[in-house]
Design brief:
CATH architecture of the largest domain in chain A: 2-Layer Sandwich
Strand content of chain B: 5-15%
Bound molecules: iron/sulfur cluster
CATH topology of the largest domain in chain A: Alpha-Beta Plaits
Strand content of chain A: 5-15%
Strand order of the largest sheet of chain B: 2-1-3
Number of strands of chain B: 3
Helix content of chain A: 40-55%
Helix content of chain B: 55-70%
Structural class of chain A: mainly alpha
Distance between the termini of chain A: 15 Å
Number of domains of chain B: 3
Oligomer: heterodimer
Largest interface: A-B, 69 and 77 residues
Shape of chain B: globular
Order of helices and strands of chain A: EHHEHHHH
CATH class of the largest domain in chain A: Alpha Beta
Strand order of the largest sheet of chain A: 1-2
Number of helices of chain A: 6
Radius of gyration of chain A: 21 Å
Structural class of chain B: mainly alpha
Radius of gyration of chain B: 17 Å
Distance between the termini of chain B: 39 Å
Amino acid sequence: MHAARNIALCTKDCLCLFICPTGATDTENGQIDFAKCLDGCRLCVDACPSHALYLVFDRYPVKPDKDVAVVSALDNLLESKAKQELIGAALAHEGNGGAKLAKAIAHSDRVLAEDCAREARYMLPQSNQTRKLLTELLGRRGDPGFPVEAIEQLLELLH
Amino acid sequence: MEYKEPHSSGALAAICTNLSKACDKQMRPTEAGLFGKLAAYFSQSAGVAGPVSFNDLDTCITSDTESGYVAVETRAQQVGDRGALRCVTWGKKVTTIHKSVLVRYAKQGDALMEGNNLYVCEACGFIAIAKEVPELCPICKAPASRFTKI
Ligand code: SF4
Ligand code: SF4
């Protein structure tokens, strides 16, 4: 568990620089130096007058399983949104009138699809459902250009 | 839990960008980049067959509003899945806006966008056709900083 800074909220005052026992808050890129931050310390989080500091966790809880029928219905909706994104992208590519509108619709459909994915069991990268999907995808290692190393690294990094 | 169909490439792309953003929020840039790589692979292997038109979008939208969202909402209410209900509440409104934008575009053509910009809310997908970025998303109340200008 370490601190992180929302740079948009930080008013560059002050107190986190004074209070941090390790200097982790004082960096040239504005972000906390995670390597120096002490696990669970949170002094800067409580000191910041702008609520710009928060804690990022290393472990996340296992969520209760989702209802199978809700997930199936969301999967169907996810497919529909993904299809609409592709139609929008194709229309934007054709470049005729409305190309920009089609691009906006495709972008919006991606956001809608992501929301369905989130509620249909893929909210947490560390979850069993995400790991199950990644493990299944390993079966495609023979496909040309398939980024199998990316999946192997993710399974290694995410717990 | 077992689910029947495997996801299409387009759906996998969205699953992966969603997980990439989740990693960004957890300050895990390496993992975010890896999910981004997967998303790029699935995006380039996804596509639609044959010529398409705005009518095809309209057909999908009608199916979503008349059955897709209804199915999620009905079951989510039965089992008290409030996260899914939130997704339905925002998604139905945004989908209805897609519909109305398409209707207006069919009537007005490119004049609809004249003098205006297009903005999309990154939290819920709301599309604004306006001169300035909205201060607050009318659907999900996300601030102006969550909008992308197209
Ligand atoms: S949590 Fe403690 S160690 Fe970490 S940056 Fe804040 S004050 Fe420094
Ligand atoms: S205390 Fe808060 S507002 Fe002040 S510099 Fe640190 S993060 Fe920024």
